[in-house]
Amino acid sequence: MARILVIDDNEDVRAIVCAVLESAGHEVTHAADGAWGLRAQRESPVALVVTDIFMPEKEGLETIRDLRREYPDLKIIAMSGAGARLQADYHLLTAREFGAHSILHKPFEPSALLELVRELLKAPTD
Prior knowledge:
By secondary structure, this protein is an alpha/beta fold. The protein has a single domain (3-118), classed as Rossmann fold, CATH 3.40.50. The protein contains 5 helices and 5 strands, in the order E-H-E-H-E-H-E-H-E-H. The protein has helices at 11-23, 34-43, 60-70, 85-98, 110-122; strands spanning 3-7, 27-31, 48-52, 75-80, 102-105. The chain has a 5-stranded parallel beta sheet with strand order 2-1-3-4-5, with helices on both faces. Helix 3 (60-70) links the parallel strand 3 (48-52) and strand 4.
């Protein structure tokens, strides 16, 4: 199983995502915003990051850009549920342009998250 970093400012969402990943056998660490997430990755690198888009301090697009710059082989899943569906779609598509490998709309089924994680962890690096 893999080491995964979950970055989300919503404590409840963060806890649920961590619990889902841990139940599948992954070692999970977490951060409340992109700045904390970047520090956590620098201190103890992970194989995959699951990050929200809208957060205080350092939002998801900046975080994805910075992670991609420093860790070009890092797998990244961007997730968002903010605003109307069209707005969330736009920001998630933008996240792909910044370097996210996959996107996930909140709310999502745990099985959808686990399937994305499985796909990314078995995929060769870009």
